């Protein structure tokens, strides 16, 4: 069963998945790297602006950058003459992330015996979760955060299956992974806190010499510092475009001048990230949520009954611990009881709930922020046959989640871009070059790189109207239809079926109309009375409308 689910993960990636989860899956890696490496027209998000960069470029280069460099090399070597197209631009980075997602399976395989979980039940829970099938095959920084968190759990869980502790020997790797995770997303510290405390406890318990304990911590700190220097250097070169000539001219000055100039140019992206996100006004621009959203909504949305079971077990553990305190038991008898056996292994619950609690301190709370918690949750759920009696509910929940987020949610936009890319690159008469204006309304941000347009090509204009109102939308369409300076200009409006009626009020006629199915816009949801009528397909579709300019 696990092998079938693993094959499904790979096959669905190649199909590919049409669901569009969030703009960050494109605009925090593939869009940026397609512009830098393939020289395509792209939209650079605010996080990657050199004036105030908030994202490290190291991981985008190591993932999307590597895949785009590979397909570019294949095309330059004439091994594959048409390697670069919308399909390969979408699937190649996703395929790399899908391969990397099996780090989760490896981690569960290693951790299940240590944490007294049923190995194959844990692996099936992991591989069958729609979070693994959908979120972990997408190019999110949250996906990398989850992979690093899983590896960190493996490194710190240095106990034998019989429960006895062994001397931890992974201090350098723990330092590297913790620092890399911090530069990927500074929120990684919330996930790393409990594993690091657990590792520190093992270090202290297993060592009789204070010198050896200090040696472990020194190794961790030194490797963390070295990793930070690597990231800061790479980001500084990328965002300041510091050339070797610039570096040489800096080195001609005195030592103090060199240090001052390097410090002035230095880019520390996590610091900028924290400065931005610790400002409540900035978070409000991205949406504010109640502090309990992760706990009451997002956890259930991602993990279903597994989250609810963990919450129930957590309350029982807390109740038992409070009861022990009231009875004034000794620390020796009370705390080990909390950390070893109480409704499974409570340390896993701490690995799950401590990051959740820290993330809940921020007002901006999205479900994807919690996807790294899947490993401790499936390990906890696979112990003591906790999830077995809920297996039918778990199967139905993950089928619905996979269909909703993998196929339906904004599911027409990627196939629409595939179709437009084919249209734009279709042969045209040399004496009458075509110009295209693509106007997107009430959709997520369209990733421009999927249109495969070179930066030197000026024959395609992309206009993102986001959720503009009827009046603004009509004015823009009328302006584009009447004021184009190109004789052979094709204007397309891409809009969900739920707001298709808005266009009819603009006084514009269309000569071509294409419906892409399915497409669900939660910002403009379909109305139930219309869904129950014969027009349900239109309500769950995305329209490509070509304006009749002759009129």
Automatic annotation (TrEMBL):
<keyword id="KW-0472">Membrane</keyword>
<feature type="transmembrane region" description="Helical">
    <location>
        <begin position="395"/>
        <end position="414"/>
    </location>
</feature>
<protein>
    <recommendedName>
        <fullName>Mannosyltransferase</fullName>
        <ecNumber>2.4.1.-</ecNumber>
    </recommendedName>
</protein>
<keyword id="KW-1133">Transmembrane helix</keyword>
<keyword id="KW-0337">GPI-anchor biosynthesis</keyword>
<keyword id="KW-0256">Endoplasmic reticulum</keyword>
<dbReference type="GO" id="GO:0000026">
    <property type="term" value="F:alpha-1,2-mannosyltransferase activity"/>
</dbReference>
<feature type="transmembrane region" description="Helical">
    <location>
        <begin position="295"/>
        <end position="315"/>
    </location>
</feature>
<feature type="transmembrane region" description="Helical">
    <location>
        <begin position="182"/>
        <end position="204"/>
    </location>
</feature>
<comment type="similarity">
    <text>Belongs to the glycosyltransferase 22 family. PIGZ subfamily.</text>
</comment>
<keyword id="KW-0808">Transferase</keyword>
<feature type="transmembrane region" description="Helical">
    <location>
        <begin position="216"/>
        <end position="239"/>
    </location>
</feature>
<dbReference type="GO" id="GO:0006506">
    <property type="term" value="P:GPI anchor biosynthetic process"/>
</dbReference>
<dbReference type="InterPro" id="IPR005599">
    <property type="entry name" value="GPI_mannosylTrfase"/>
</dbReference>
<dbReference type="Pfam" id="PF03901">
    <property type="entry name" value="Glyco_transf_22"/>
</dbReference>
<comment type="pathway">
    <text>Glycolipid biosynthesis; glycosylphosphatidylinositol-anchor biosynthesis.</text>
</comment>
<keyword id="KW-0328">Glycosyltransferase</keyword>
<dbReference type="GO" id="GO:0005789">
    <property type="term" value="C:endoplasmic reticulum membrane"/>
</dbReference>
<keyword id="KW-0812">Transmembrane</keyword>
């Amino acid at each position: 069963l696990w092998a079938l689910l693993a094959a499904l993960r790979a096959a669905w990636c190649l199909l590919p998945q049409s669901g569009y989860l969030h703009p960050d899956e494109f605009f925090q890696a593939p869009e940026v790297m397609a512009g830098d490496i393939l020289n395509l027209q792209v939209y650079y998000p605010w996080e990657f602006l050199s004036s105030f960069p908030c994202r490290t470029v190291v991981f985008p280069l190591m993932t999307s950058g590597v895949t785009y460099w590979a397909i570019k090399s294949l095309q330059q070597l004439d091994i594959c003459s048409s390697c670069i197209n919308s399909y390969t631009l979408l699937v190649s980075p996703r395929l790399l992330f899908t391969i990397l997602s099996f780090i989760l399976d490896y981690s569960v395989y290693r951790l299940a015996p240590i944490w007294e979980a049923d190995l194959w039940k844990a692996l099936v829970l992991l591989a069958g979760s729609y979070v693994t099938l959908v979120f972990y095959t997408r190019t999110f920084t949250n996906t990398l955060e989850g992979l690093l968190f899983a590896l960190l759990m493996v490194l710190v869980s240095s106990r034998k299956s019989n429960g006895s502790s062994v001397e931890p020997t992974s201090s350098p790797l723990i330092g590297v992974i913790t620092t890399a995770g911090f530069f990927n997303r500074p929120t990684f510290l919330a996930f790393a806190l409990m594993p690091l405390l657990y590792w520190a406890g093992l270090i202290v318990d297993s060592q009789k010499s204070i010198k050896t304990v200090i040696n472990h911590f020194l190794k961790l700190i030194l490797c963390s510092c070295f990793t930070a220097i690597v990231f800061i250097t790479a980001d500084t070169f990328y965002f300041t475009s510091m050339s070797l000539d610039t570096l040489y001219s800096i080195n001609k000055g005195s030592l103090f001048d060199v240090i001052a100039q390097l410090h002035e140019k230095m880019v520390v992206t996590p610091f900028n990230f924290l400065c931005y996100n610790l400002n409540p006004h900035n978070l409000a621009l991205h949406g504010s949520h109640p502090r309990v959203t992760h706990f009451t909504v997002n956890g259930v949305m991602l993990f279903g009954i597994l989250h609810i079971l963990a919450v129930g077990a957590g309350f029982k553990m807390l109740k038992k611990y409070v009861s022990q305190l009231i009875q004034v038991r000794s620390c020796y008898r009370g705390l080990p009881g909390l950390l070893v056996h109480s409704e499974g292994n409570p340390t896993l619950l701490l690995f799950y709930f401590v990051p959740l609690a820290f993330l809940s301190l921020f007002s901006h709370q999205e479900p994807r922020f919690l996807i790294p918690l899947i490993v401790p949750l499936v390990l906890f759920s696979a112990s003591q046959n906790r999830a077995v009696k809920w297996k039918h509910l778990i199967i139905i929940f993950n089928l619905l989640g996979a269909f909703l987020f993998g196929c339906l949610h904004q599911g027409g936009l990627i196939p629409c871009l595939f179709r437009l890319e084919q249209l734009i690159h279709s042969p045209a008469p040399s004496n009458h070059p075509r110009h295209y204006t693509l106007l997107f309304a009430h959709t997520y941000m369209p990733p421009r790189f999927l249109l495969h347009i070179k930066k030197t090509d000026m024959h395609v204009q992309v206009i993102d109207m986001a959720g503009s109102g009827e009046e603004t939308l009509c004015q823009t369409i009328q302006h584009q239809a009447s004021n184009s300076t190109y004789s052979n200009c094709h204007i397309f409006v891409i809009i969900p079926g739920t707001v298709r009626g808005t266009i009819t009020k603009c006084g514009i006629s269309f000569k071509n109309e294409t419906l892409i199915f399915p497409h669900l816009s939660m910002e403009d949801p379909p109305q139930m009375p219309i869904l129950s009528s014969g027009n349900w397909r239109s309500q769950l579709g995305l329209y490509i409308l070509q304006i009749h300019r002759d009129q």
